[in-house]
Amino acid sequence: MSGRVCAVLVVSAVSVAALADCPPRYEVTAVVHGPDCGWPWGFASVIPWALNDLGHIAGDWACPTADPDAFGWYGEGPIVPVDLPPGSMTSTGEDINSADWIVGTVDIKDELGWLAFVYDGKTTQTLGVLPGANCSRGQAINAAGDVAGFSGHNVTADPPWQAFLWRDGEMINLGEQMGALKSRAYDISANGEVVGYRQMEEDGQYMAFLWDPQGVVDLGPIEGGYSSSAYGINNKREVVGSGLLTDEGTGETEKHAFYWCDGQMHDLGTLPPYENSLAYDINDSSVIVGYCSKPSPLLSRAFVWADGVMWDLNELIPPDSGVYLQNARDINNAGQIVVRGNDELSNTVAVLLTPIDLPPTDLDCDGITGVVDLLILLGEWGKTDSPADFNQDGIVNVRDLLILLWHWG
């Protein structure tokens, strides 16, 4: 293992024990609705898929009687439809980079199939297809404008879908480079590293891969399982996704989120009582987002994973927020999370969450420093190994009391 320690291994290394024991907290910064579809439909459903470091969102929206259309949302106001080529019938927005370029997929009348596109805020460029294919789907874009996705045929199995990297106007067949029978790419890092899954032979299992110009790394199956698929990568070469395994008690197939770092695959498990989980993204602080679900009844809840613990995001926002968080889709390096959710009227909405900085003296994890924290500190007085040792000088004493009073309220 390299000198970098994977986040899944560092729970005991968090410097302030009080914060290590407190769950993160988030405020609901925005609830983004779609356009009004008119009576009796109400607001259009909004499906967010991506978030950039500016807090801007890409996704797609649809009224019940229409196909979805790609949109961008730029921090305030309503969603903004992507300006698509003439004849466009339906589209999806899959990712947005730091320059607000949106990548996605569009279905154009009289074309044979879906085409990947990049929208730079002024014009939309379709990216074409791999040789022999008639479809492509754009999944991710980095700051350099490199695009990852997959291309194949929408009618026949020949050629099969293969992962691609689009760079400088050229679509590179990554699946062919990897010797894969089938492959798909879902994310790309700032360094141009691409992740997804590949199938190497007929009837073989799908396995997550990490590709860069130096070669490809097979991430292997999820810990204790038999397959894997990668959906997100950060700029520290850490990868998340999901894999299949068999429940030892019931014999049923389950899907669990994974975290891959330094050659090690870690099963993140699920939130009780959910049976399945999937991780969509990871930021450069190794915070992971996704969702947990169970098939009967069909339910899902968004999660965030940090410092070795998976949390239900619904329990980390104020109880009067008026939203239910189903699926956390993306996280940026400021720690903001975009979630597919429902408002109080059951409209499907995009929810933007922003982390709340907890004071280091919040010993009871209620978000403020107050009387309870003072009483906890006094109970820890004189101890040499305590979360109340705020200045970490080896003992709880008057210096720690002064720090607590400084953060009061």
3D architecture notes:
The chain has 409 residues and is mainly beta. The chain folds into two domains: 25-356, Peptidase/esterase 'gauge' domain (Methylamine Dehydrogenase, Chain H), CATH 2.130.10; 371-406, no CATH class. It is built from four helices and 28 strands. The strands form seven sheets. It has a four-stranded antiparallel β-sheet with strand order 1-28-27-26, with no helix packed on it. A four-stranded antiparallel β-sheet has the order 2-3-4-5, with no helix packed on it. β15 and β16 (207-212) form a beta hairpin. α3 (371-379) runs antiparallel to α4 (398-406). The longest helix is centred in the last third of the chain and has 9 residues, at 371-379. It is globular and about 75 Å long.
Question: What labels would you give this structure?
Answer:
4-stranded antiparallel beta sheet, 4 helices, Methylamine Dehydrogenase, Chain H, 7% helix, mainly beta, 2 domains, 409 residues
How are the elements arranged and paired?
Blueprint: H1 17-21, E1 25-32, E2 45-51, E3 57-62, E4 69-73, E5 80-81, E6 88-96, E7 102-108, E8 114-119, E9 124-126, E10 135-141, E11 147-152, E12 162-167, E13 170-173, H2 174-178, E14 182-188, E15 194-199, E16 207-212, E17 215-220, E18 229-233, E19 239-246, E20 253-261, E21 264-269, E22 276-282, E23 288-294, E24 299-306, E25 309-312, E26 323-331, E27 337-343, E28 348-356, H3 371-379, H4 398-406
Antiparallel strand pairs: 1-28, 2-3, 3-4, 4-5, 6-7, 7-8, 8-9, 10-11, 11-12, 12-13, 14-15, 15-16, 16-17, 18-19, 19-20, 20-21, 22-23, 23-24, 24-25, 26-27, 27-28
